[in-house]
Specification:
Layout lengths: L4 H4 L2 E14 L2 E14 L3 E5 L6 H8 L7 E6 L2 E2 L5 H11 E4 L11 H11 L5 H11 L15 H14 L4 E5 L7 H18 L2 E6 L2 H4 L4 E6 L2 E7 L3
Parallel strand pairs: 3-8, 3-9, 6-7, 7-8
Antiparallel strand pairs: 1-2, 1-4, 4-5, 9-10
């Protein structure tokens, strides 16, 4: 997807002094503290950090799936937390795709139906045709009628990628997308995700603990102890 220069200068997503605390007995546990960054259109940004550093919590806040204790998130200039949940859900459906470590496919739906669902919710008139094309694109033309329990982990994540990209989102949020896969399968999924991201011109925010995966992004954000401790340019 071609983007002009002005468009690439506009942040697709922006965290503004974002904080998250939860009750901890008589005290408060700080999970994230004053996180501030912006991601421009077309960028691929890795969020790195050890287990428990707050990176998955950050992704949930960026998606508006959780609410912050302080600060806010803007997606294409719209303040997520000035909206009610219905408006946040509508914005997610319009602009955001998700890929999760645990796939998050609906077990009662076939691969085709899982990919059709967001298209139908978006009111796309040719949902079946588009979903079929996307499953073919990720190499699953022969698995349209299979339920998740009959698919391997790699195949399930391919369905999840097809579902995430099917609505052609502006922003893709990925949370450890290879975490439940063996090394070889995980490598093929990452190759596919970056290929689709490049072809579609999507903006990518990828949570990972894997430095090799992070090096394929344009830059990284490093989280330690709930704080942003570095933003490093990385090799593309």
């Amino acid at each position: 997807m071609d983007r002009n220069i002005d468009e690439t200068l506009v942040p697709v997503i922006e965290a503004v002094d974002l904080g998250k605390e939860v009750p901890n007995g008589d005290d408060r546990l700080v999970i994230l503290h004053e996180i501030r960054f912006a991601v421009r259109a077309g960028e691929a940004v890795a969020v790195l950090g050890a287990s428990g550093s707050g990176k998955s919590t950050l992704l949930g806040l960026l998606a508006g799936l959780d609410t912050p204790s302080a600060g806010t998130v803007r997606i294409e200039g719209e303040d997520l937390f000035a909206m009610d949940e219905d408006r946040r859900a509508a914005l997610r459906g319009r602009l955001v795709g998700f890929v999760f470590q645990s796939f998050q496919l609906l077990p009662a739906l076939t691969a085709l139906e899982n990919v059709m669902l967001p298209l139908e919710l978006a009111g796309k008139p040719a949902a079946r045709q588009e979903a079929t094309q996307w499953l073919a694109r990720v190499g699953l033309r022969a698995r349209l009628g299979h339920y998740p329990k009959h698919l391997s982990g790699g195949e399930q994540q391919r369905v999840a990628l097809a579902r995430a990209f099917a609505t052609r989102p502006r922003l893709l949020l990925a949370d450890e997308p290879t975490g439940n896969l063996d090394a070889a399968t995980g490598a093929s999924i990452i190759d596919l995700m970056f290929s689709l991201n490049r072809e579609e011109g999507t903006t990518l925010v990828l949570v990972t603990h894997d430095e090799a995966i992070a090096q394929r992004c344009d830059r990284s954000l490093r989280i330690a102890g709930g704080r942003l401790v570095g933003s490093d340019p990385l090799a593309a």
